[in-house]
Amino acid sequence: MAINYTMTLNGRQAEGVGTFGVRNPATGEVFAEVPEASATQVDQAMSAALRIPAEWRTDRELRAKALHEVAAVMRVHAEDLARAITCEMGKPLAHAMREVAGGAAYFDYYADLDLPVTTIRDDGKVRLELRRRPVGPVAAITPWNGPIILMAAKVAPALAAGNPVILKPSPYSPVSALTFGDLVRELLPPGVFAVLTGSGDLGRWVTEHPAVRKVTFTGSIAVGKQVAVAAARDLKRVTLELGGNDPVIALDDVDAQQFAERVATLALVNAGQICIAPKRIYVPASRHDEIVDALVASVRGVRVGDGLDPGTVMGPIANKAQHEFVAGLVREVHDAGGQVISGQAPDVRGGHYYPPTVVTGVGKGMRVVDEEQFGPVIPVIRYTDVHDAIEQANSTMYGLGSSVWSADLARAEAIADRLEAGTSWINTHFASIGPEQTLSGVKWSGIGVEGGRWGLEEFTDPHLRYVDLAAATSHTSTEESQ
């Protein structure tokens, strides 16, 4: 039987004008009914955001205390949040528990991070300072693949900077966000944080609302461009993380077995549904067959199943639409004469399961290489020399992450310097991402920064203060002479 959930609006529970069902990708069955927010409720959330207590904007200690309390309650209720994640998008429960822990770490990190006043000039005549002020109401729109960690990466710095936040989660994975809202509702002043859910026009209503001064969005390039256009109409600030098609370059000195085991593990985390997962594997032509054999052996050891089963290594694809997209990419490879080598089929029925798969005989011009697969598919592409590898890696409009693998660190770093990406890793990929690190994209992978001090600055406006010290001294002297 489906469980009913409520939204968070102006510090209170809120029903919607209707409900919609959320399906468990492991079974295909509706397990939750969540509210459908109305345009009127969006107006109410924005009105409440504009009326938040002035202390939230000005009292950093108040905000720090609240954010630490949010982190603490997340840890106390970690299993509730993790089970919601697993049921709504399929990842193994152990992975979901790590996601919740990572989300709590964001709130603790930003609770303790300050943006001190920067003194530009102080020479006895003039004191010139740069200060940071809250930007205003923030619309945070999050995707379905990391519903808690990606929420925390937006909400924690936005709140820490003194802003109110209206969170709109994906309709595929809203349950964990609604659960989070239930947990923190009484820890934050009314109007400071709202969670609104919907499957139709909600994203547009939130993005285009005149009260919003900042939109932070993670999702597809197509929708990200729509968000940017909508925000531009009244000059809202935007942070856009629009996905990646990360290249991995193996140099000719890699240990094939170690490389394959590590890359296969990273590529299949969350069933490949991570924006900074390895997605295009470039290998020397002379080592191609050896590395492919090692990758195939690695993926065949991955157990696919329900994320609530403790023995599951990889869960299902998160929704039917994404499952069909991934299956279509692989069919195109087969039809074009490429080689498709699949790992273990799941030992369960129903749901959106897909076996981990290695594809070869592919290259530029095929969608499995040109587009972000966002699934458990590992394309392996030959290159002739390092210049060819770099050219192929950069031959895309994506530019989020990249990695180079070699025993020769100097050589690997020299190649990384030539890759067009916001992040480059050496001998790993998306390792140890934490709140102190930045995540940003180049080209069509996004605008702005998440993480670290720079991620906090994204939710502020610069304010320059100019103090004429000489004039103050002159006024004081005049007053004393009188």
Description:
This protein has 482 residues and is α/β, with parallel strands linked by helices. The chain has helices at 39-50, 54-58, 60-76, 78-89, 93-112, 149-160, 175-184, 202-208, 221-232, 256-268, 288-299, 320-335, 367-370, 386-394, 409-416, 452-457, 469-481, and strands at residues 3-4, 7-9, 12-14, 18-23, 30-36, 118-122, 126-134, 138-141, 165-168, 193-195, 214-218, 237-241, 246-250, 278-284, 339-342, 357-360, 377-383, 401-405, 423-426, 446-447, 460-468. Helix 4 (78-89) packs across helix 5, helix 5 (93-112) runs parallel beside helix 6 (149-160) and helix 10 crosses helix 11. It is globular. The model has no long low-confidence stretch (mean pLDDT 96). The chain contains 17 helices and 21 strands. It has two domains: 3-242 and 451-465, 3-Layer(aba) Sandwich (Aldehyde Dehydrogenase, Chain A, domain 1); 246-426, Aldehyde Dehydrogenase, Chain A, domain 2 (3-Layer(aba) Sandwich), CATH 3.40.309. One of its GO terms (molecular function) is oxidoreductase activity, acting on the aldehyde or oxo group of donors, NAD or NADP as acceptor. It comes from Acrocarpospora macrocephala. This is Aldehyde dehydrogenase. The active site is at 241.
